[in-house]
Amino acid sequence: MSVAKQKLCHLLLDEVFGSRVAKVGRHLAKWEKCFLADLYQLDQPHECLGVLINHGLVTYGRDPRPTPGVQYEISLDQVIQTIRYPRYLYLIKALHGDNAELILEEVLRRGQETLPKIMEKSLNRIELDENLAKTHKQDLEKTFQTLVKEHFLQRAPHVGTNPEVPGSTVPILDETTRFHVPESIESCSSIYWCLNVDRFHVEFRNKILVSTVTRRIDETAGKLMEFILSLSGKKLEASSRHISITEIYANINKCIDLKLRQYKDHYLKVLEEDRTRFIDRVGDEGGGTYVVNFKHIFTVLGSAVVENVVQEKFNSKALRIFRVVRDKLYVEESQIQKLVMIPARETKLMTYQLLENNFIQVQELRKSLSANVVAKSFYLFHVDLNQVARMVQEMCYMSLSNAIIRKNHELQINARLLEKQDRIDSITSNINASEEFVSEEERTQQLEEVQDMLSPAEHDLVKQIRRCGDKLHSSLAQVDETLLVLELFLKL
Amino acid sequence: MSRGRGRGTGLSFNAELLGVGRGQEAIPASLLTPPPLYPARLAPPCPLVEGPESDYLLAVRKEFLHQMKSSGFQLGGHPRSQNTQPPGAPTSALKVERYSDRYQTPEDIPLQLDWSRFPAELRPENRRRRIKRRPMPTLTQAKKPNLVSRGDVTQTLDELEKKEKSGDKSEDETDKKEGSDGEDEDKPKLPGAIEDSEGELEDEEMDDGTDYANNYFDNGEEYGDEDDDNLDEGGIY
User: Fold this and answer.
1) What distance in Å separates residue A376's CA from the closest CA in chain B?
2) What residue spans carry the Acidic residues bias annotation (chain B) (predicted)?
3) Same fold for the domain at A97-195 and the one at A297-367+375-383?
4) Whose C-alpha in A16, A106, A325, B129 is 20 to 30 A from the C-alpha of A123?
5) pLDDT tens for each residue of B101-119
6) Closest CB to B75 among A47, A85, A315
7) From the DSSP assignment, how many helices (H) and strands (E) are in chain B?
């Protein structure tokens, strides 16, 4: 657990759940595992822990021996995933429509919730909001069942005792009923539902792969990849199950894309022979069996991310050096200079800049073991992609923290101005809603008066601050996209 | 210059022999300052991706944060609402009722959680209250029975002491007897009755003339509990 990650989590918790929860979160992150007694010095730790457990950010466990109490542990990855909530909603909206979005939004806000409550809240929102299409309760329930069936939602774990270890306190999640919705709604009132994050990540992974194929080859190939991925299972694994060609063909024949139906063999061959190896042929039985090697594909994607970072941080010449070192695995400095075709001095400078920033590593090979013999050793440059990816991940954490800090700072120094603007907005909406005014003229006059509470310069400033805040919010989302690729690379 | 002693020249070897030349490729001067906090960028940053997707993500994120703020899950003040006043502003300004206050949503929504789903120690009914310890026997308590039989002066002193005791006692019984406290106060206090109850107390504790059998062991669990409500961060070592 790095310092940058802890800091980011503190900022995120502060943003979403407020300062008290953030303090508890920071304490938990610092000590990895805590007893409740360790948290007594903080303000109302029970409530904060309740909130965190409720949103699935803290897990707990107690063995009767050797620990005397329940230990709480925060999952920093889960905390960072709170940035991804809008992305979950976007995905579910694209896959299952507005109703699904509404349901998921309720679940995300509440952390975990029972079906009747979700229905009640969603229907309330539909009634209040004019922009939302009117739907029946039955439709909502059907959508909910689809979401559970598709494993996007699951039952939330509750406190219990591990039957094998008497006296323990652990969160219990029954695997057999994890994705099961009871027939009657009445019996649902005590079952809480929460998000199944892994399922979303599977969708994200598939989406990334499809867009990669689409960009590398063409749209039809992307569609084929989509079919193959739909057969590859709903779990995050390093490699998919064996998929036979007949299964793929059966899927292709269902679609209406004539181009794909006509050239399906060609497209499969192209996917297979691409240098990224989108699919691997593992056997010839039944016309051919394929697997999707996610580990390999995400290694390629992860290195592409790292290469982009090198290019943006330094320049394209540095990128060339980086690629040569990566390609040749272990190279000497003089070899690099020959291979990259850049003036020697510049090459040297770039190489050492990369080394200084830990993008490439140096391995020393001694000819003799005695230390005082000079020039009897080789220095080989190499790239440890895992380590570099982790470093870039850290950089992402730092930039996310910086963006949040900057946003908070902007809001804080301009707090008075923004408050004034909020007040004007609320008064304006009130004037628009009220029916006291006899004529429209009077109303517009009043509105103008209210607007004049801020000078034109201040109006501009407010606009500028808001634009700045929006930009920082967007940048959070986009850094998170990078983070997602790296995470999948490191996790698989 | 005497050879071999290393006098005069700072180095005992020739730097040029090691392949470190003069001019451009010389060893750079050692850095004595930390690297800059905000290093200059070589190239301008890439622009953000814009489009319907990022607009949607932005809108949803802002909406989500806004909803969380008024959901009851947000505990403790948010930095913005906390620091709306610049440091120099008078604090009394906060107390003036504003016109816009009427249009603000109340922010203190109670936290609603199904506590039965969480570990027992977190549930509100199980939260540990400050435990009042029983008063320790004092020297005056132990000697009292002898004092009663003395003359007038001691008797009046005794009366006073009893009054003091009864005052102390009602303070001590806070948790359990809160309901019955009111009744006690309504009744006229009979000196005899109080004496009786005190006698019982002494009997229990002082049966053998010592208090060795009593358990005054403090396992330290309550230590530091006194002010867990309003301790800011810091002081955790």
Assistant:
1) 12
2) 195-210, 219-237
3) yes
4) A16
5) 555 544 456 777 888 888 8
6) A47
7) 6, 0
All structural domains of chain A with their residue ranges: 3-77, 97-195, 200-292, 297-367+375-383, 389-429+452-491
CA–CA distance, A79 with A53 (Å, rounded to integer)? 11
Q: List pLDDT tens digits, range B128-145.
A: 554 445 556 666 655 555
Q: Whole-prediction pTM value?
A: 0.75
Which fold does the domain A297-367+375-383 belong to in CATH?
Arc Repressor Mutant, subunit A (1.10.10)
Amino acid at B92: S
CATH number among 1.10.10.10, 1.10.1740.10, 3.40.50.720, 1.10.10.60, domain A3-77: 1.10.10.10
Query: Which CATH number is A200-292's, of 3.40.50.1010, 1.10.10.10, 3.10.290.10, 1.20.210.10?
Result: 1.10.10.10
Here the contacts of A465-470 (C-beta below 8 Å, separation 24 or greater) are A465/A410, A465/A411, A465/A414, A465/A417, A465/A418, A468/A407, A468/A410, A469/A407, A469/A410, A469/A411, A470/B58
Taking the Cβ of residue A329 and every Cβ of chain B, the question of whether any pair is shorter than 8 Å is answered with no
Nearest CA in chain B to A423: B100
pLDDT 10s digits, A302-331 = 999 999 999 998 889 999 999 999 999 999
Return residues 26-65 of B near A (CB < 8 Å).
42-43, 45-46, 48-49, 53-54, 56-58, 60-62, 64-65
Best A474, A476, A478, A484 residue to mutate vs chain B (most B CBs within 10 Å): A474
Q: What's the token pair of residue A205?
A: 């992974």
